[in-house]
Amino acid sequence: MLQALGYILYARLFLKKLIRPNAASSFMFAYGTALLVLLEYGDGASWPVLALPATCAFMSIFIALLCLRKGATEPVDKVEAIAFSADVWLTILWFGIAFGYGEIALYSAGFLLAGNVTTLTAFFPVLRSTWKTPEREQPLPWLVWTSAYIVLAVVTFLADRGQHPALMVYPVLSALLHGSVALMSLRGKARVLRWVDAARSIYIGRSEIHGKGMIAGRRFETGEPVWTLTGRPVFGAVTESGPNYIGLGPDVWIDPDLPLDHINHHCAPNAAFGPRRQLVALRPIEAHEEVTIDYSTTECDAAWAMRCDCGASDCRGMLYSIQHSFAHHEEPPAASPLMQLVWRHRRAAAAAASAFPQLPAPAPAERPAPITVSRERYEPAHVYARNHRLSPGASVRRRLLRSRRAAASRLAFRATGSA
Ligand SMILES: [Zn+2]
């Protein structure tokens, strides 16, 4: 029960994009645990002891399917691949002995140890990644799992009374490993505190502009970093495929994590993205004021357009990408460091031409240019011919050219003649 609770927590965290598990790793872990169930069964474990790893296997498959649906398929770690192939070989060997000789009990303890080694080896990538970036995992499900394994260890000991010592390996080692992941994700209390602090400084709330929005929990001063943009990079996508995508450059977007996937547009925004993907306050933001950016300053997809009803006094009404929105302005918008960068590049007229092709502004709807027809183009041919008669200079030049050619051919003839 505890184990299932841990997995439900894990799945919820994944859906909330706070953690990023991987489909292939989950599948491999499920396979390894299922193999362990088989091996423990072979070693004479009772059903209460088997219940936990069985739940574990089922829930891992569930997480893997969830990952597949959400497209979280990252390449598999080498250690995991080796552990997985070892698992497969163990399965083949076990079935070979079980059906070939019919007598598995003799080897079962050895198999169980080997199965434990492979399944727990598959744990090392998680340990390593959690050591490197504790933010990848949340401590809560791991703490729940650790307590589940401690309970299992006690149950196993009570049920088995020390007859099969190999059965104790799995719960004890698992409790240790899960506990260490939990500790590592808790490591550096500062990180946890910073997260809690950050959770207070920004929250998701009802927006005056559109549905939900990103609301400041406290006052931010001008230039103060509000949040750091993180998320899954997306390349060469159509903007429509992810309405929350934030553009980083031509054909590069980021599918932002919470809470930035809720940030709304405002034509007079109070925040903008600065260096190192920092969302920075452009003016003092009061507590419980909505944090907004100008979508036109981050979107480079020339085909992108969005209707705006933000209520700003100078609301643009219709939003277009960077290239269109400000191309006809003399100065870059103050609200966009990215646009100021584009402007600087454009002034330099260097590499920017390829990086940010400046398209002409969308046709000004209010004042179309008056159509003027040049008179000369429509004059009859003879009038045109009279105005542009051959000049005497041209005929002189032509005669000079002809005499030069003749001289050259005479010279050539003489050269061949004397040879
Ligand atoms: Zn607007």
Explain briefly what this protein structure is:
The chain is mainly alpha-helical. 51% of the residues lie in helices and 11% in strands. It has helices at residues 2-15, 23-42, 47-70, 78-100, 105-121, 124-132, 139-160, 169-186, 189-201, 322-325, 337-348, 352-355, 381-387, 392-418; strands spanning 202-206, 212-216, 225-228, 231-235, 246-249, 252-256, 264-265, 271-273, 278-281, 292-293, 305-307, 318-320.
The number of distinct helices, counting runs of at least 4 residues, comes to: 14
Cofactors, ions and other ligands in the entry: zinc ion
Order of helices and strands: HHHHHHHHHEEEEEEEEEEEEHHHHH
Q: How do the strands line up in the largest sheet?
A: 3-9-8
Report the sheet-strand fraction: 5-15%
Helical percentage: 40-55%
Low-confidence segments, given as residue ranges, are 188-194
Number of strands: 12
User: Average pLDDT value?
Assistant: 71
Broad structural category: mainly alpha
Query: How many whole angstroms does the radius of gyration measure?
Result: 36 Å
Number of domains: 2
Largest β sheet strand count, sense and barrel closure: 3 strands, antiparallel
Q: Judging from the principal axes of the Cα atoms, what is the shape?
A: flat
Tell me the span between the first and last alpha carbons.
109 Å
